Amino acid sequence: MAEPITLARPYAKAAFEAARDASALQSWSDALVEAAAITRDSKVKALLSSPSLTAVQKAAAFIDLCGDTLNEAQKNFIRVLADNNRLPLFPQVSQLFELYKANQEKAVDVELQTAYDIDDAVLAKLATSLTEKLDRKVSLQTAIDPSLLGGAIIRAGDTVIDGSVRGRLAKLAETMSH
Q1: Cβ neighbours for 7, distance < 8 A, ≥ 6 positions apart
Q2: H/E element holding 149?
Q3: Which residues make Cβ contacts (< 8 Å) with residue 33, sequence separation at least 6?
Q4: Are residues 14 and 92 in the same domain?
Q5: 60: domain CATH number?
Q6: What is the helix (H) or strand (E) element at residue 144, kind and residue range?
């Protein structure tokens, strides 16, 4: 069977295109995040996996759980997912939607791990450099990890730059063992 993220991709893309065309990216984002949270509930999981309910009943129940926050297009999206037995994929749909949204908005979340606390001026300079290099608006989150010994690890999407002392020592050890 295919991975859930793979199954969710066409639905996330369809939701993104509908949201973009309606200039409603944030509304859709909020709705998908809420739907993903609802889907994670154990009682909802049981409801969605119940063979005694039809797709129409599952969609209606799910829409009721979402409350009055959904517009008609979002309700129709839920109905399509229910018709295709894909309601449990909402967490993956939401995750992919956020990636498409960030790409549209030319934004990227960057995680910076360092061994020590970094000065704000250095962080600002790094954010500026990353913005230029990635051609995206950078949202920088920092974390301190003393096990790095020194240097830093930068994660931006699927790009990882390991400039840590720990990483360099690991490379050296690998080179010496061959």
Answers
A1: 86, 89, 92
A2: none
A3: 94
A4: yes
A5: 1.10.520.20
A6: strand 137-144
Order of strands, sheet of 137-144, starting from the edge strand that comes earlier in the sequence? 137-144, 107-114, 152-156, 159-162
Range(s) of the domain holding residue 160: 107-177
- The alpha carbon of 86 is separated from its chain's Cα centroid by a whole number of angstroms, namely 18
Q: How confident is the model at residue 167 (pLDDT cuts 50, 70, 90)?
A: confident
**The total number of structural domains that make up the chain:** 2
DSSP 8-state secondary structure symbol assigned to residue 84: T
pLDDT at 16: 96
Q: Is the dihedral of CA 122, 163, 142, 132 positive or negative?
A: positive
Residue with token string 């001026």: 121
Q: pLDDT, tens digit, for every residue of 120-155? A: 999 999 999 988 888 888 889 999 999 888 889 998
- Whether the pTM exceeds 0.70: the reply is no
C-beta of residue 107 within 8 angstroms of C-beta of residue 139 = yes
Give the tokens for residue 138. 């950078």
